[in-house]
Amino acid sequence: MTTTETLDVQPTPLALLLLGREADPRSERGVNCPGDLPAPSDPDLVERARTAKAKLGEKVFILGHHYQRDEVIEFADVTGDSFKLARDAAGRPEAEYIVFCGVHFMAESADILTSEAQAVILPDLAAGCSMADMATAEQVAECWDVLTEAGVADVTVPVSYMNSSADIKAFTGRHGGTICTSSNAKRALEWAFAEGGPRQNKVLFLPDQHLGRNTAVRDLGFSPDDCVLYNPHKPNGGLTAEQLRAAKMILWRGHCSVHGRFSLDSVEDVRARIPGVNVLVHPECKHEVVAAADQVGSTEYIIKALDAAPAGSAWAIGTELNLVRRLAKAHPDKQIVFLDKTVCFCSTMNRIDLPHLVWTLESLADGKVVNRIQVDKETEHFAKLALERMLALP
Ligand code: 13P
Ligand code: SF4
Questions:
Q1: Is 278 a known ligand-binding residue?
Q2: Which positions bind [4Fe-4S] cluster (predicted)?
């Protein structure tokens, strides 16, 4: 049997939490949900959510990411991808409570972009993101030391995907970099290579290797050989100083467990089953899947593409299943199928359900603030620099 020792690989310091149980301060998500949740079988849940929301009135603003369950989306004041929701949160200074039906890193970003007087609330603290957990602050600091040692830190601009903890965003801000989302990754990379200051000939892209590679190769015309993969579980990231010096994109070895499921086989299979089908995938999918697709884009892009599609057209969508199901229901005149044969929900997004939403809203209506997400001042300062750089991208 192969051991970690023979592979020269360090075991992950961050075993995934058993969902919704226990606590891991190293994880971007957190702890047990306090309080008594209503029973999921309670037939009055919808009415209770309506009553509590009405009682709160303008004081509460509910944001819903596109991957949330229908039962939660029904109560969202706005829906969107992570970029749109960050802007929407920043654009609501009058709301006392921002209830973020998304995942932990999104709520952190909303806290950073809203005022001290506003409380950002995540209805279930176990709603984290396994991709964000793949880059810890210690690992990234160690990586920067490796780049410094190789003599390339001075010419490297960090670009971090929104799907990262506030600590990683602060690292990015501290080192003159920007945040990006799947809808503006191309602009963020163009900025980093053209205007990221004197240090502009390399990007350290965190933590999603696929979004980094797909954007560099598809949108910026780089060769896959311009990219190297930094593995935080290997000494020096598994790279030599020469490899680091030769690379243009240093990709962190992280991925999305949901989008990572789509394969070239799923694309070939759906093309054989549905002649003429348009394959549309999220850029968090592997490069070979993206290369075989007809179109690639963020969740907002996918929604707009289907809105604009002619009646009778057929589409296979490679993104989270809650969204694909809603799109299929909204467009009965088009054939919209899920790209994979296997069910593919984001299990952490799905942590937020009606019982958690009811518990949150009723607690707020009783004057009790629960599950508040608060980023400490220093982290907030540097993370905000990186987020504001993103919001200012042309
Ligand atoms: P967007 O919301 O940027 O499309 O990203 C999808 C995602 O995986 C969110 O966690
Ligand atoms: Fe994270 Fe992927 Fe879920 Fe998005 S879909 S929250 S990237 S695990």
A1: no
A2: 129, 256, 346
Q: Which ligand 2 atom minimizes the distance to the CA of 348? A: 3
**Tokens coding 350:** 């799905």
- Dist. CA 282 → ligand 1 center (Å): 8
- CATH code, 331: 3.40.50.10800
For ligand 1, atom 9, the nearest C-alpha belongs to 82
pLDDT digits (tens, 9 = 90+) for 121-175: 999 988 999 999 999 999 999 999 999 999 999 999 999 999 999 999 999 999 9
Known binding residue 283? Answer is yes
Ligand 1 neighbour 133 (Cβ under 6 A): no
Q: How many domains does the chain have?
A: 3
Is the Cβ atom of 182 under 6 angstroms away from ligand 1? yes
Query: With contact defined as beta carbons under 8 Å apart, do 140 and 118 qualify?
Result: no
Decide if 343 is inside a domain: no
The reply to whether 36 falls in a domain is yes
d(CA 35, CA 260): 35
What is residue 27's predicted lDDT score, i.e. its pLDDT? 53
> Domain range spanning residue 106?
4-129+349-376
Residue 344 lies in a domain: no
Quote the mean pLDDT of the chain: 90
Q: Computed from CA positions of residues 122, 125, 130, 132, in that sequence, does the dihedral angle turn out positive or negative?
A: positive
Residue whose Cα lies nearest atom 2 of ligand 1: it is 81
Q: Structure pTM?
A: 0.89
**Residue 356 within any structural domain of the chain:** yes
Single-letter amino acid, residue 270: V
Which tokens hold the place of 190?
């163009």
Q: How far, in Å, is the centroid of ligand 2 from the Cα of 303?
A: 18
Q: Cα of 329 to ligand 2 centre, how many Å?
A: 23
Tell whether residue 33 is among the known ligand binding residues. no
pLDDT digits (tens, 9 = 90+) for 379-394: 999 999 999 999 899 8
CA dihedral 388, 174, 121, 83 (to 10 degrees): 40
Per-residue pLDDT band at 23 (split at 50, 70, 90): very low
